[in-house]
Amino acid sequence: MLDRFIDARSATDSAHGSSVSPASRRWFTAAARTVDMCSAVRSIRDRLTNRHADFRNETAHRLSVLVVDDEESVRAFVERVLRDAGYEVTVASDGPDALKIVEQHGPFDVFVLDVMMPQMRGDELSRQFRVSDLDVKVLYFTGYSE
Q1: Cα(69)–Cα(78) distance, integer angstroms
Q2: Is residue 36 part of a domain?
Q3: Would the pTM of this model clear 0.85, i.e. be above it?
Q4: Is 88 strand, coil or helix?
């Protein structure tokens, strides 16, 4: 879907003598991945709703999400999209920061983790979360292409 959109945009731009910049391509890719991520978070919410009666109650808490990404612009974008979709969102800039936040403000219903981060990769951070909660829900995302 994203490739078709970029190809259509490229064709339109080419007709006007311009092209899709690498920055635009990265932004479109991040936007499409965020839409997919929102769908995945909704799917987790729906599964929790079906499993736990208190989630079905109108007064139940909003789903809490911890977003961890080392790139500030991506963190801010994902935070805004999820918050606008009705989720309670907290952000962290790296693995050690996320561990501190979970210790001070946890628990969280869902973790959205960048795969490639300095200091601690997303999969290692997930393993740390699973030490205290085997049923932790984790969504991974990345801008890393290789």
Answers
A1: 9
A2: yes
A3: no
A4: strand
Residue 146 lies in a domain: no
Sheet holding 110-114, edge to edge: 88-92, 64-68, 110-114, 137-141
134 C-beta neighbours (distance < 10 Å), count: 7
pLDDT of res. 5: 43
Question: Which pLDDT belongs to residue 29?
Answer: 58
Note whether 95 and 66 are within 8 A (CB): no
- Flag whether 68 is in a domain: yes
Which tens digit of pLDDT belongs to each residue from 5-61? 444 444 444 554 545 455 555 555 555 555 566 666 666 666 655 555 554 454 346
Give the residue numbers spanning the domain of 60: 2-141
Number of domains in the chain: 1
Of 53-62, 71-80, 109-118, the one with minimum mean pLDDT is 53-62
Q: What b-and-e string marks burial along 101-121, b requiring 16 or more CB atoms within 10 Å of the CB?
A: bbeeeeebbbbbbbeebeebb
- The enclosing H or E element of 48 equals helix 22-51
CATH number at residue 116: 3.40.50.2300
